[in-house]
Design goal:
By secondary structure, the protein is of the alpha/beta class. It is 43% helix and 14% strand. A six-stranded mixed beta sheet has the order 1-2-10-7-8-9, with helices on both faces. The chain binds ligand F0G. Ligand F0G binds next to helix 4, helix 9 and helix 13.
Length: 359
């Protein structure tokens, strides 16, 4: 039987491309190495010859892509002798910060918008023992407060303004290139605080500049219409969307995201909540892949752009599914029109239920 070394996380794997030393104590939960799944049914439904793959980041240890950045941010915080970390979050960053801090033995403070984070994410932060601070404000208020606190106290910010976060997150682009044997033609992803698009662009550039690949993808990023500062061209107050993960009006990596879009020749676009939820349901129903609403916007994006011909036939497209659908069970259940069938615990009733639903 052939043996393979145990996978021990992305810092170990990409050590020579990340700012760590041989003796750095690495804080890892085995993040990265997520599947790149080809969409078969949805691609067929589009009736165009396009190869669409999803990078299922919901399969990271805490269920989102944030773990790629957090393993780096917490590793570097420990390296710098930090005793506490802080972040503002729409939910996933706080879940990830909480888990990696627990692993490292430091205190995580997380600022979240009161009542506007998905249940699973709140459960994670609480279970991992984070100090959860619910603010009467949104993510942008939280971000402002976190920056002010970190100026006055010895505490490390682990939002994506921490450069180590992007270093970790760039590895998703490496993995995609390694699996495809080349860079995709287009990369579609949701756009919130804009760290992830910046990180992917950094990763694609790194493999391009070192000659590992000879092309880079066009970066196509999508926002919810109620929270679309990149589409409006300026920050928006009171952002609102069912995709709470990207309910952000004042993105921190504004310039980096514009640079990625412009340098790559890609584009930004927007979708309303109904379209976002429809894409989430379609992916779950037709491909068996459950992602959270914010993630599904990349599916809405690729479908619209393939249909319109903006993404031409023959293209290879990758979409990042940033978070797992289980993060937000409330939103999922609310949009399911078919309710569970309730019956007595009797064979005849089970048979009847089966017969009526054989299609
Ligand atoms: N998708 C999900 C599931 C997210 O949680 C986020 C951001 C994004 C997309 C957008 O990525 O900010 O790098 O452009 N969530 C952050 C959080 C803001 O606090 O968890 P981005």
């Amino acid at each position: 039987m052939p043996f393979r070394p145990r996978y021990t996380g992305l810092i170990d794997k990409y050590r020579d491309r990340l700012p760590v030393h041989d003796d750095t104590r690495i804080i890892s939960l085995g993040e990265g190495n997520t599947p790149l799944i080809r969409l078969n049914n949805i691609s067929r439904q589009l009736d165009k010859e396009v190869d669409i793959y999803v990078k299922y980041e919901g399969l990271n240890p805490t269920g989102s892509f944030k773990d790629r950045g957090m393993t780096m941010a917490i590793t570097k915080a420990i390296d710098a002798n930090s005793k506490a970390v802080i972040c503002a979050s729409t939910g996933n960053t706080s879940a990830s910060a909480a888990a990696y801090s627990a692993r490292a033995g430091i205190i995580p403070f997380v600022l979240i918008p009161d009542g506007k984070i998905a249940l699973g994410k709140l459960a994670q932060a609480m279970m991992h023992g984070a100090v959860v601070i619910q603010i009467q404000g949104n993510f942008d208020d939280g971000m402002r407060l976190v920056k002010e606190v970190a100026e006055q106290a010895p505490i490390t910010i682990v939002n994506s303004i921490n450069p180590y976060r992007l270093q970790g997150q760039k590895t998703a682009a490496f993995e995609i290139i390694e699996e495809l044997g080349k860079a995709p033609d287009y990369h579609c992803l949701p756009l919130g605080n804009a760290g992830n698009i910046s990180a992917y662009w950094m990763g694609y550039n790194e493999y391009f500049q070192t000659g590992i690949v000879n092309q880079r993808p066009k970066m196509c990023a999508y926002q919810a219409s109620g929270a679309a500062p990149f589409l409006r061209g300026h920050p928006v107050e009171n952002p609102e969307t069912v995709a709470t993960a990207i309910r952000i009006g004042n993105p921190q990596s504004w310039d980096k995201a514009w640079a990625a879009q412009k340098e790559s020749g890609g584009w930004f676009d927007e979708f309303d909540d109904q379209d976002i939820l429809a894409a989430q349901k379609l992916l779950a129903e037709k491909e068996g892949i459950f992602c959270e609403p914010a993630s599904a916007i990349s599916i809405a994006g690729v479908m619209r752009d393939v249909k319109s011909g903006k993404i031409p036939e023959g293209s290879v497209v990758t979409c990042t599914l940033t978070g797992h659908g289980l993060k937000d069970p409330d939103t999922a259940i609310q949009q399911c029109t078919v309710q569970p069938i309730k019956i007595k615990a009797e064979l005849a009733e089970v048979k009847n239920a089966i017969l009526q639903n054989m299609g």
